[in-house]
Amino acid sequence: MLAFTDPGLQNSTGAVDDVAMAGKQRRHFFRVETDIAASGAVLDGPGASTLFEARVLNVSAGGAWLELPVPLEDGQLLRLALRSEDPLLDLHARARVVHQNDGHAGVEFVDIDARSRAIVTRFVFAQAQRLGVKPEYAPPGSVRAA
Q1: Using CA atoms, how far apart are residues 93 and 117, in angstroms rounded to an integer?
Q2: What is the residue extent of each domain of the chain?
């Protein structure tokens, strides 16, 4: 599992301190900036069946940050297709909106199989290498500060 550890969030035993976590973001996968195309459909709630085009501003094996022209609500389920030629990516996945604001939405991939997660993980590492970003490894349960 890839993440960045913030020592300020750990207690004296090295475990993540839940009090220090208040207001912090938990991430379990390394996230990389990108600017790739996505298309999708809203599967439930307001705007169900709405088709849309979006830009993926960052992505990890666990989810993505999207810029999109349709309003969404937290908890809505989407069908997404993410595509890139360089580095290569062709991912089709369901995602749930975990937060949204001002034309942007953070989504978490749901029910993603191991093959699809491997596809996006390869893309993330290729993109990191292309950008000159070196991912840091951390043990499971580590966090990345917001």
Answers
A1: 9
A2: 32-131
Rounded-to-10 torsion of CA 17, 62, 56, 34? 80
Here the tokens at position 59 are 């992505």
Pairing mode of beta strands 32-42, 63-67: unpaired
Per-residue pLDDT tens over the stretch 76-113? 999 999 999 988 889 999 999 999 999 999 999 999 99
Sign of the C-alpha dihedral computed for residues 26, 28, 33 and 37 taken in this order: negative
Q: Quick check: 23 and 145 in contact, CB under 8 A?
A: no
**Which CATH class for the 32-131 domain?**
mainly beta
Extract the runs of DSSP E, i.e. beta strands, from the chain: 32-42, 51-59, 63-67, 77-84, 89-101, 104-110
Whether 52 and 39 have beta carbons less than 8 Å apart is answered as: yes
Specify burial of residue 48 (Cβ count, 10 A radius: 0-12, 13-18, 19+): exposed
